[in-house]
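Handout, section B. The chain below has 408 residues.
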Amino acid sequence: MAHKLSLRQYKRLLGVSSEEQLAGVLSELEALAASGNISGSSSAMLSGLRQFFFQTDEAYQQAERDLILGRRSLELSSNELSEANQHLRHEAETRQQVMLSLRRTANAVLAQLGKHLADEDGLENLSHLLSGLVSELLSTRDALEHALAAIKNQQFALDQHAIVSITDARGNILYANDKFCEISKFPLAELKGVNHRIVNSGVHSPEFFAALWGTITQGKVWHGEICNKAKDLSLYWTAATIVPFLDADNKPYQYISIRTEVTEQHRLREKIESGRLLLQNVMNTLGEGVYTLDADGRCTFLNPEAEKILGWSLPELSGKVLYDVIHSRRLDGSLLRRAGCAIGRAVGAGQVFRSDQEYFEHQSGRLFPVSIVASPIFENGRIVGSVAAFQDITARRLAETALRESEI
Protein backbone atom coordinates (compact mmCIF):
# COMPACT_ATOMS: atom_id res chain seq x y z
CA MET A 1 0.00 0.00 0.00
CA ALA A 2 1.41 3.38 -0.95
CA HIS A 3 2.22 5.88 1.81
CA LYS A 4 -0.35 8.66 2.26
CA LEU A 5 2.28 11.35 1.59
CA SER A 6 3.24 9.59 -1.66
CA LEU A 7 -0.41 9.48 -2.80
CA ARG A 8 -0.77 13.16 -1.92
CA GLN A 9 2.23 14.01 -4.10
CA TYR A 10 0.98 11.83 -6.99
CA LYS A 11 -2.37 13.58 -6.91
CA ARG A 12 -0.96 17.10 -6.56
CA LEU A 13 1.89 16.79 -9.06
CA LEU A 14 0.76 14.04 -11.47
CA GLY A 15 -3.03 14.15 -11.28
CA VAL A 16 -3.10 10.53 -10.11
CA SER A 17 -5.63 10.07 -7.29
CA SER A 18 -5.31 6.36 -6.45
CA GLU A 19 -2.92 3.42 -6.50
CA GLU A 20 -5.08 1.72 -9.14
CA GLN A 21 -4.89 4.73 -11.42
CA LEU A 22 -1.11 4.94 -10.90
CA ALA A 23 -0.72 1.25 -11.75
CA GLY A 24 -2.70 1.76 -14.94
CA VAL A 25 -0.65 4.78 -15.99
CA LEU A 26 2.62 2.94 -15.32
CA SER A 27 1.44 -0.04 -17.34
CA GLU A 28 0.64 2.24 -20.28
CA LEU A 29 4.01 3.92 -20.04
CA GLU A 30 5.80 0.56 -19.86
CA ALA A 31 3.87 -0.60 -22.92
CA LEU A 32 4.92 2.57 -24.72
CA ALA A 33 8.54 1.92 -23.71
CA ALA A 34 8.35 -1.60 -25.09
CA SER A 35 6.72 -0.51 -28.40
CA GLY A 36 9.99 0.77 -29.89
CA ASN A 37 8.28 3.96 -31.06
CA ILE A 38 10.36 6.21 -28.80
CA SER A 39 14.07 6.79 -28.24
CA GLY A 40 16.19 4.38 -26.20
CA SER A 41 16.78 6.88 -23.36
CA SER A 42 13.06 7.68 -23.10
CA SER A 43 12.24 3.96 -23.15
CA ALA A 44 14.75 3.32 -20.31
CA MET A 45 13.33 6.15 -18.22
CA LEU A 46 9.71 5.03 -18.68
CA SER A 47 10.63 1.43 -17.86
CA GLY A 48 12.26 2.55 -14.57
CA LEU A 49 9.38 4.73 -13.35
CA ARG A 50 7.65 1.92 -11.45
CA GLN A 51 10.82 1.15 -9.43
CA PHE A 52 11.38 4.90 -8.90
CA PHE A 53 7.91 5.33 -7.40
CA PHE A 54 8.37 2.20 -5.26
CA GLN A 55 11.68 3.41 -3.79
CA THR A 56 10.28 6.90 -3.14
CA ASP A 57 7.32 5.42 -1.29
CA GLU A 58 9.59 3.09 0.72
CA ALA A 59 11.64 6.11 1.82
CA TYR A 60 8.46 7.70 3.22
CA GLN A 61 7.56 4.46 5.05
CA GLN A 62 11.04 4.13 6.60
CA ALA A 63 11.10 7.76 7.69
CA GLU A 64 7.81 7.32 9.53
CA ARG A 65 9.02 4.11 11.24
CA ASP A 66 12.24 5.79 12.38
CA LEU A 67 10.34 8.74 13.83
CA ILE A 68 7.97 6.47 15.78
CA LEU A 69 10.98 4.59 17.24
CA GLY A 70 12.66 7.82 18.28
CA ARG A 71 9.50 9.18 19.92
CA ARG A 72 8.94 5.96 21.88
CA SER A 73 12.54 5.99 23.12
CA LEU A 74 12.14 9.61 24.27
CA GLU A 75 8.94 8.77 26.18
CA LEU A 76 10.62 5.78 27.90
CA SER A 77 13.65 7.83 28.95
CA SER A 78 11.41 10.64 30.31
CA ASN A 79 9.28 8.21 32.40
CA GLU A 80 12.32 6.45 33.88
CA LEU A 81 13.93 9.77 34.78
CA SER A 82 10.76 10.86 36.64
CA GLU A 83 10.76 7.61 38.64
CA ALA A 84 14.43 8.07 39.53
CA ASN A 85 13.79 11.61 40.75
CA GLN A 86 10.94 10.40 42.97
CA HIS A 87 13.19 7.70 44.53
CA LEU A 88 16.00 10.17 45.17
CA ARG A 89 13.59 12.74 46.64
CA HIS A 90 12.24 10.11 49.06
CA GLU A 91 15.77 9.21 50.20
CA ALA A 92 16.61 12.87 50.77
CA GLU A 93 13.48 13.35 52.89
CA THR A 94 14.31 10.24 54.97
CA ARG A 95 17.87 11.47 55.66
CA GLN A 96 16.49 14.89 56.61
CA GLN A 97 14.13 13.27 59.12
CA VAL A 98 17.06 11.36 60.66
CA MET A 99 19.02 14.60 61.06
CA LEU A 100 16.03 16.32 62.69
CA SER A 101 15.64 13.42 65.12
CA LEU A 102 19.36 13.52 66.00
CA ARG A 103 19.29 17.30 66.49
CA ARG A 104 16.26 17.14 68.80
CA THR A 105 17.84 14.36 70.90
CA ALA A 106 21.14 16.21 71.18
CA ASN A 107 19.49 19.51 72.12
CA ALA A 108 17.42 17.83 74.83
CA VAL A 109 20.70 16.98 76.61
CA LEU A 110 22.62 20.11 75.66
CA ALA A 111 19.88 22.35 77.04
CA GLN A 112 20.72 21.11 80.56
CA LEU A 113 24.27 22.38 80.06
CA GLY A 114 23.35 25.70 78.48
CA LYS A 115 24.38 24.61 74.99
CA HIS A 116 22.52 24.30 71.73
CA LEU A 117 23.04 22.73 68.29
CA ALA A 118 22.06 25.20 65.56
CA ASP A 119 19.65 24.17 62.81
CA GLU A 120 22.33 24.51 60.14
CA ASP A 121 24.84 22.28 62.01
CA GLY A 122 25.37 18.85 60.44
CA LEU A 123 26.85 15.55 61.54
CA GLU A 124 30.38 16.94 61.68
CA ASN A 125 29.47 19.70 64.14
CA LEU A 126 27.38 17.26 66.15
CA SER A 127 30.36 14.90 66.31
CA HIS A 128 32.73 17.61 67.54
CA LEU A 129 30.20 18.92 70.04
CA LEU A 130 29.44 15.51 71.55
CA SER A 131 33.12 14.62 71.71
CA GLY A 132 33.87 17.77 73.70
CA LEU A 133 30.80 17.24 75.84
CA VAL A 134 31.88 13.76 76.89
CA SER A 135 35.30 15.09 77.89
CA GLU A 136 33.73 17.85 80.01
CA LEU A 137 31.36 15.47 81.78
CA LEU A 138 33.88 12.77 82.73
CA SER A 139 34.14 14.28 86.25
CA THR A 140 30.39 14.38 86.80
CA ARG A 141 28.67 11.04 87.07
CA ASP A 142 25.12 12.30 86.64
CA ALA A 143 26.02 14.40 83.59
CA LEU A 144 27.92 11.47 82.09
CA GLU A 145 24.86 9.26 82.50
CA HIS A 146 22.74 11.84 80.67
CA ALA A 147 25.29 12.00 77.85
CA LEU A 148 25.41 8.20 77.57
CA ALA A 149 21.62 8.11 77.48
CA ALA A 150 21.66 10.73 74.71
CA ILE A 151 24.16 8.68 72.73
CA LYS A 152 21.98 5.60 73.11
CA ASN A 153 18.96 7.57 71.90
CA GLN A 154 20.92 8.82 68.93
CA GLN A 155 22.10 5.30 68.21
CA PHE A 156 18.51 4.09 68.37
CA ALA A 157 17.38 6.84 66.00
CA LEU A 158 20.16 6.00 63.57
CA ASP A 159 19.47 2.28 63.80
CA GLN A 160 15.87 2.82 62.71
CA HIS A 161 16.83 4.55 59.47
CA ALA A 162 20.47 3.93 58.63
CA ILE A 163 23.26 1.39 58.23
CA VAL A 164 25.79 2.26 60.95
CA SER A 165 29.27 1.06 61.80
CA ILE A 166 32.09 2.41 63.98
CA THR A 167 35.74 1.59 63.42
CA ASP A 168 39.00 2.45 65.09
CA ALA A 169 41.60 4.65 63.38
CA ARG A 170 42.86 1.68 61.33
CA GLY A 171 39.41 0.74 60.03
CA ASN A 172 38.80 -2.25 62.34
CA ILE A 173 35.09 -2.63 63.14
CA LEU A 174 34.13 -1.84 66.74
CA TYR A 175 30.38 -1.71 66.25
CA ALA A 176 27.85 -2.59 63.52
CA ASN A 177 24.10 -2.18 63.88
CA ASP A 178 21.45 -4.68 62.83
CA LYS A 179 20.90 -3.01 59.45
CA PHE A 180 24.62 -3.35 58.67
CA CYS A 181 24.50 -7.06 59.53
CA GLU A 182 21.31 -7.49 57.53
CA ILE A 183 22.56 -5.88 54.32
CA SER A 184 26.07 -7.37 54.53
CA LYS A 185 24.70 -10.80 55.56
CA PHE A 186 27.50 -11.08 58.15
CA PRO A 187 26.59 -11.84 61.78
CA LEU A 188 27.99 -9.32 64.26
CA ALA A 189 30.41 -11.92 65.65
CA GLU A 190 32.09 -12.17 62.25
CA LEU A 191 32.38 -8.38 61.91
CA LYS A 192 33.70 -7.16 65.26
CA GLY A 193 37.45 -6.75 65.29
CA VAL A 194 37.68 -7.34 61.52
CA ASN A 195 38.85 -4.64 59.14
CA HIS A 196 36.16 -2.89 57.15
CA ARG A 197 37.78 -4.25 54.00
CA ILE A 198 35.70 -7.40 54.61
CA VAL A 199 32.92 -5.73 52.56
CA ASN A 200 35.23 -4.27 49.89
CA SER A 201 33.57 -5.06 46.56
CA GLY A 202 36.60 -4.48 44.35
CA VAL A 203 34.49 -2.10 42.24
CA HIS A 204 36.35 1.03 43.27
CA SER A 205 39.92 1.91 42.34
CA PRO A 206 42.80 2.34 44.82
CA GLU A 207 42.65 6.06 44.02
CA PHE A 208 39.04 6.16 45.25
CA PHE A 209 40.00 4.79 48.67
CA ALA A 210 43.14 6.95 48.81
CA ALA A 211 40.95 10.04 48.41
CA LEU A 212 38.49 8.76 51.05
CA TRP A 213 41.21 8.07 53.64
CA GLY A 214 42.96 11.29 52.74
CA THR A 215 39.79 13.17 53.72
CA ILE A 216 38.88 11.45 56.99
CA THR A 217 42.45 11.19 58.35
CA GLN A 218 42.56 15.00 58.13
CA GLY A 219 39.52 15.16 60.41
CA LYS A 220 37.12 16.02 57.60
CA VAL A 221 33.77 14.43 56.82
CA TRP A 222 33.54 12.30 53.65
CA HIS A 223 30.36 11.96 51.60
CA GLY A 224 29.86 9.69 48.63
CA GLU A 225 28.35 6.56 47.13
CA ILE A 226 30.18 3.30 47.62
CA CYS A 227 29.64 -0.27 46.45
CA ASN A 228 30.10 -3.05 49.03
CA LYS A 229 30.07 -6.86 48.81
CA ALA A 230 27.91 -9.02 51.08
CA LYS A 231 28.90 -12.39 52.50
CA ASP A 232 27.05 -14.18 49.69
CA LEU A 233 29.15 -12.13 47.19
CA SER A 234 26.18 -10.00 46.10
CA LEU A 235 26.87 -6.29 45.63
CA TYR A 236 24.95 -3.37 47.13
CA TRP A 237 25.34 0.41 46.92
CA THR A 238 25.06 2.89 49.76
CA ALA A 239 25.15 6.65 50.12
CA ALA A 240 27.64 7.08 52.96
CA THR A 241 28.76 9.78 55.37
CA ILE A 242 31.94 9.02 57.35
CA VAL A 243 32.57 11.24 60.35
CA PRO A 244 35.90 11.18 62.27
CA PHE A 245 35.96 11.47 66.09
CA LEU A 246 38.96 13.56 67.15
CA ASP A 247 41.08 13.29 70.28
CA ALA A 248 42.60 16.17 72.28
CA ASP A 249 45.27 16.58 69.60
CA ASN A 250 42.66 16.77 66.84
CA LYS A 251 43.71 13.36 65.54
CA PRO A 252 41.02 10.84 64.50
CA TYR A 253 40.74 7.90 66.87
CA GLN A 254 37.42 6.51 65.61
CA TYR A 255 35.21 6.79 62.53
CA ILE A 256 31.45 6.46 62.39
CA SER A 257 29.92 5.58 59.06
CA ILE A 258 26.24 6.30 58.44
CA ARG A 259 24.74 4.91 55.24
CA THR A 260 21.47 4.47 53.40
CA GLU A 261 21.05 1.82 50.73
CA VAL A 262 20.75 3.21 47.19
CA THR A 263 21.15 -0.01 45.20
CA GLU A 264 17.86 0.38 43.33
CA GLN A 265 18.47 4.06 42.64
CA HIS A 266 21.94 3.21 41.31
CA ARG A 267 20.53 0.49 39.05
CA LEU A 268 17.81 2.86 37.88
CA ARG A 269 20.38 5.54 37.04
CA GLU A 270 22.39 2.94 35.11
CA LYS A 271 19.24 1.89 33.27
CA ILE A 272 18.39 5.49 32.45
CA GLU A 273 21.92 6.14 31.25
CA SER A 274 21.79 2.99 29.13
CA GLY A 275 18.50 4.16 27.67
CA ARG A 276 19.93 7.60 27.05
CA LEU A 277 22.91 6.11 25.22
CA LEU A 278 20.60 3.88 23.18
CA LEU A 279 18.46 6.87 22.27
CA GLN A 280 21.58 8.88 21.42
CA ASN A 281 22.79 6.07 19.15
CA VAL A 282 19.39 5.86 17.44
CA MET A 283 19.35 9.62 16.89
CA ASN A 284 22.92 9.61 15.61
CA THR A 285 22.28 6.86 13.08
CA LEU A 286 18.98 8.13 11.68
CA GLY A 287 19.15 9.25 8.08
CA GLU A 288 17.24 12.39 9.07
CA GLY A 289 18.05 15.50 11.01
CA VAL A 290 16.51 15.59 14.48
CA TYR A 291 16.20 18.53 16.85
CA THR A 292 14.46 19.08 20.18
CA LEU A 293 13.22 22.36 21.63
CA ASP A 294 12.10 23.45 25.09
CA ALA A 295 8.75 25.11 25.78
CA ASP A 296 10.15 28.48 24.63
CA GLY A 297 11.39 27.09 21.33
CA ARG A 298 15.04 27.09 22.38
CA CYS A 299 17.25 24.37 20.94
CA THR A 300 18.22 21.60 23.38
CA PHE A 301 19.48 18.91 20.99
CA LEU A 302 20.72 18.38 17.43
CA ASN A 303 21.82 15.03 16.06
CA PRO A 304 24.85 14.86 13.72
CA GLU A 305 22.65 14.68 10.60
CA ALA A 306 20.86 17.88 11.64
CA GLU A 307 24.22 19.60 12.15
CA LYS A 308 25.26 18.45 8.68
CA ILE A 309 22.04 19.66 7.02
CA LEU A 310 21.91 23.04 8.79
CA GLY A 311 25.63 23.84 8.87
CA TRP A 312 25.38 24.66 12.61
CA SER A 313 26.73 22.64 15.53
CA LEU A 314 24.80 21.89 18.72
CA PRO A 315 27.05 24.15 20.87
CA GLU A 316 26.37 27.01 18.42
CA LEU A 317 22.57 26.61 18.51
CA SER A 318 22.05 25.36 22.08
CA GLY A 319 19.81 27.75 24.02
CA LYS A 320 18.90 29.79 20.92
CA VAL A 321 15.37 30.17 19.56
CA LEU A 322 15.62 27.88 16.54
CA TYR A 323 12.92 29.73 14.61
CA ASP A 324 15.06 32.92 14.62
CA VAL A 325 18.06 31.07 13.21
CA ILE A 326 16.66 28.72 10.55
CA HIS A 327 12.98 29.45 9.86
CA SER A 328 12.33 33.21 9.89
CA ARG A 329 12.51 33.81 6.11
CA ARG A 330 10.31 32.74 3.22
CA LEU A 331 11.69 31.56 -0.09
CA ASP A 332 11.31 35.06 -1.57
CA GLY A 333 13.38 36.49 1.29
CA SER A 334 10.46 38.13 3.12
CA LEU A 335 10.14 37.87 6.89
CA LEU A 336 8.08 34.98 8.28
CA ARG A 337 6.75 36.16 11.61
CA ARG A 338 6.87 33.66 14.43
CA ALA A 339 3.11 33.89 14.91
CA GLY A 340 2.73 32.76 11.30
CA CYS A 341 5.02 29.74 11.63
CA ALA A 342 2.88 26.69 10.81
CA ILE A 343 5.19 24.36 12.74
CA GLY A 344 4.99 26.44 15.92
CA ARG A 345 1.21 26.84 15.69
CA ALA A 346 0.59 23.11 15.29
CA VAL A 347 2.97 22.04 18.07
CA GLY A 348 1.63 24.76 20.39
CA ALA A 349 -1.85 23.34 19.86
CA GLY A 350 -0.60 19.87 20.82
CA GLN A 351 -0.76 18.53 17.27
CA VAL A 352 1.70 16.65 15.08
CA PHE A 353 2.85 18.72 12.10
CA ARG A 354 3.80 17.12 8.76
CA SER A 355 4.83 18.98 5.64
CA ASP A 356 7.23 19.06 2.73
CA GLN A 357 6.45 22.70 1.93
CA GLU A 358 8.66 24.39 4.54
CA TYR A 359 12.04 26.03 3.99
CA PHE A 360 14.98 26.17 6.40
CA GLU A 361 17.96 28.50 6.26
CA HIS A 362 21.47 27.05 6.11
CA GLN A 363 24.28 28.62 8.14
CA SER A 364 25.54 30.10 4.88
CA GLY A 365 22.23 31.92 4.33
CA ARG A 366 20.96 29.53 1.63
CA LEU A 367 17.28 28.56 1.85
CA PHE A 368 16.41 24.94 1.05
CA PRO A 369 13.17 22.89 1.07
CA VAL A 370 12.61 20.39 3.85
CA SER A 371 10.28 17.52 4.58
CA ILE A 372 9.49 17.70 8.32
CA VAL A 373 7.46 15.93 11.00
CA ALA A 374 7.26 17.82 14.34
CA SER A 375 5.56 16.59 17.50
CA PRO A 376 4.91 18.18 20.92
CA ILE A 377 6.47 16.65 24.05
CA PHE A 378 4.04 16.30 26.95
CA GLU A 379 4.76 15.96 30.68
CA ASN A 380 1.80 15.54 33.04
CA GLY A 381 -0.50 16.78 30.32
CA ARG A 382 1.51 19.95 29.71
CA ILE A 383 3.55 20.74 26.59
CA VAL A 384 7.18 21.09 27.70
CA GLY A 385 8.86 21.14 24.31
CA SER A 386 8.89 19.51 20.89
CA VAL A 387 10.88 17.10 18.73
CA ALA A 388 11.17 17.15 14.96
CA ALA A 389 12.72 15.03 12.22
CA PHE A 390 13.49 16.65 8.89
CA GLN A 391 15.25 16.08 5.56
CA ASP A 392 16.74 18.33 2.91
CA ILE A 393 14.56 17.51 -0.13
CA THR A 394 16.41 19.71 -2.63
CA ALA A 395 17.40 16.66 -4.69
CA ARG A 396 13.85 15.35 -4.64
CA ARG A 397 12.48 18.69 -5.80
CA LEU A 398 14.98 18.72 -8.69
CA ALA A 399 13.95 15.18 -9.63
CA GLU A 400 10.28 16.15 -9.55
CA THR A 401 10.97 19.17 -11.74
CA ALA A 402 12.91 17.02 -14.18
CA LEU A 403 10.06 14.51 -14.24
CA ARG A 404 7.47 17.19 -14.97
CA GLU A 405 9.61 18.69 -17.73
CA SER A 406 10.08 15.26 -19.31
CA GLU A 407 6.30 14.86 -19.55
CA ILE A 408 5.80 18.13 -21.41
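Note. The chain is about 55% helix and 20% strand. Compare this with the example in section A.
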